[in-house]
Design a protein that fits this description.
Number of strands: 5
Shape: elongated
Oligomer: single chain
Radius of gyration: 21 Å
Number of helices: 7
Distance between the termini: 77 Å
Order of helices and strands: EEHHEHHHHHEE
CATH architecture: 2-Layer Sandwich
Helix content: 40-55%
Strand order of the largest sheet: 2-1-3
Largest sheet: 3 strands, mixed
Strand content: 5-15%
Length: about 160
């Protein structure tokens, strides 16, 4: 029988997720909240911990990540790279924002590599359009070159 504590967290769209203490400990923000509540207001731990800046869809990804981190050894498995590869651009952006909000070092660390992998696979033109860099088309149909405008202020 497992006596590990289970906590509830509630997202901005009122979805409630259960996380055990080991999963909670992967988030600096959540573990500090739990520690503070246990010390000062243990009765409040019966209610879900509010996560106002993370929606349910993204929190579901965070819960899965914490679970896989707990049950599988990242040093001997490629699960984290495989997990991140299947995320859409919007999911990855939300996942990174949640990791930043909840301060989850393992997600922050691994998503840097996934972002680099995605950028390396892009063409220069696609990178320019994603970063909204203005460009001009060459007459020979070549790749867009950034247009740099320098303005001087008179004294």
């Amino acid at each position: 029988m497992n006596s590990e504590k289970v906590y509830k967290v509630e997202t901005s769209d009122k979805q409630v997720f259960e996380m055990n203490s080991e999963d909670i400990s992967q988030s600096i923000t959540l573990s500090e909240q739990v520690d503070d509540l246990e010390d000062r207001h243990p009765h409040l731990l019966l209610q879900p911990i509010q996560i106002p800046n993370v929606n349910g869809e993204i929190m579901q990804l965070v819960v899965k990540w914490c679970y896989f981190s707990r049950v599988d050894c990242p040093n001997t498995s490629r699960w984290c790279a495989d997990f991140l590869k299947i995320l859409t651009k919007n999911e990855l952006n939300g996942f990174i924002s949640a990791a930043d909000e909840l301060i989850i070092p393992s997600i922050i660390h691994e998503t840097k590599y996934e972002m680099m992998r995605r950028v390396e696979s892009m063409t220069p033109g696609l990178i320019q359009s994603c970063l909204e860099i203005p460009g001009t088309s060459g007459s020979n149909g070549g790749p867009n070159k950034p247009k740099i405008v320098v303005k001087y202020r008179r004294k």
